[in-house]
Amino acid sequence: MTHLRDKDLSALLELVAECQRLVEPDQFRAGLLPLVRRAVPCAMATYNEFEPGTDNAVALFDPPEAMIFDDPGELLARVAPSNPLITRFAETRDGHAYKISDFITQSELHETAIWKEAYRPLGVEYQMAFALPSQPSVVIGIALSDGERDFSERDRELLNRARPQLVQAYRNAHVYSELRARLASLERGLEAAGQATVLLRPDGRIDAASPEARRMLAAGFNGQRARGQVLPPVVERWVEERRATPAPQESLPLVLGEGRERVVVRFVRLADTTGRDVLFMERSHEPMSANSLDALGLTARESEVLRLAALGETSGQIASRLSISADTVRKHFENVYRKLGVHSRAQAVATAWAVAETRRMASG
To answer: What global pTM score does this model have?
Structure first.
């Protein structure tokens, strides 16, 4: 039989919704207490995490000024076994909400070490607590305490209804923290290798970017910079072209910048259903060296023409750089196509990047 009225259900929903926003373990530990006190009014709430028989303990208080002990963790570890709520959970792992008065009288409470050393200085006469699932050797409990009144069946039912969602929020906080740590390690590894990463949303906007990627985007490419979560136009157009291709040639990068200081951008389509893609960005003083195309069997001049094309230069720019005519550039491309067995500049450039990447990985 329910003891909850409409306003109690509203308090329950508010508690659950607010707890889902606590996405780090430390944030969850501290943020949970004022939310629980709002739903179940009481003089004080504590978050207790400890291993029975050891000195490992965490004790947090709300309001913070209620914490009057120099070392609450040491005190908790020492006197906790005299609290019937703690000993019962350690034996049964039943984490539902229980009151001290469910097991002992108030006079019996006054004989316990925890009341004499902890609860009496705090003015605690009544307590209700519930627990979160944890490792078998660890007890994680949230205790609500008061000096004026015992807790009601309404309070018990509200906490028991909220508990499954609080358990999930606690687990989510730990999973989120682990994922953040793994991603940070991955980003550090990629940046140590000279690469930065950008995660793109389905609409092409930036979902997340590593610190080095943000520095590159802020500096800009070819005079174009990122605007908030929007990629620089030259990169945005290139991504749209990659996404429009059913099977994009992921080995064919976008090369940006002038002279020897360039940035090489590679597009990778994620094999999932989220519609997200990844950009790998790498600073390179020489993204494709003069001798990286030796294995293609081209002449020195043909290799240079193909290398400049792979770096994004037009036929006119290649002719100007090499001090040759546009017709000579065209003739070089015809020879390159014939020797590589391809029929377009895009195919020749893709082949050049594939060979250059293979050589780079073999030498790295």
So the answer is: 0.54
Cis peptide before 63 (omega within 30 of 0): yes
Reported as a single tens digit per residue, the pLDDT across 57-92 is 677 889 988 888 888 778 877 888 899 998 888 788
Asked if the domains at 193-284 and 294-363 fall in one CATH topology, the answer is no
Position 48: which residue type? N
Rounded CA gap, 271 and 75, in Å? 52
- pLDDT value at residue 192: 64
Instruction: Give me the pLDDT at residue 324, please.
Output: 92
Helices 153-192 + 211-219 axis angle, to 10: 60
C-beta of residue 137 within 8 angstroms of C-beta of residue 123? no
For the 6-179 domain, the top CATH level (class) is alpha beta
Highest CATH level, class, for 294-363: mainly alpha
Which pair of structure tokens corresponds to residue 15?
Answer: 């508690």
* Beta strand pairing call for 98-99 and 206-209: unpaired
The whole-angstrom distance between residue 140's C-alpha and the CA centroid of its chain comes to 25
Q: Count other Cβ atoms within 10 Å, centred on residue 69.
A: 16
> How do the domains of the chain map onto residue ranges?
6-179, 193-284, 294-363
- Sign of the dihedral through C-alpha 87, 76, 44, 82: positive
- Please answer whether residues 161 and 12 qualify as being in contact, where contact means their C-beta atoms are separated by less than 8 angstroms: yes
Cβ-proximal residues to 305 (8 Å cutoff; 6+ apart), any chain:
318, 322, 329, 332, 333, 336
Q: Which long-range contacts (CB under 8 A, 24 or more apart) does 60-67 make?
A: 60/29, 60/30, 60/33, 61/33, 62/30, 62/33, 62/34, 62/37, 66/122
Q: Measured between alpha carbons, how far is 165 from 173 in angstroms, rounded to an integer?
A: 12
CATH architecture of 193-284: 2-Layer Sandwich (3.30)
Angle, CA of 140, 5 and 163, to the nearest 5°: 15
Q: Which residues of the chain have pLDDT under 70?
A: 1-2, 52-57, 134-137, 183, 185-194, 222, 246-252, 258-261, 271-274, 284-287, 289-290, 357-364
Q: Would you tell me how many other CB atoms lie within 10 Å of the CB of residue 25?
A: 15
What is the distance between the alpha carbons of residues 44 and 67, in angstroms, rounded to a whole number?
A: 10
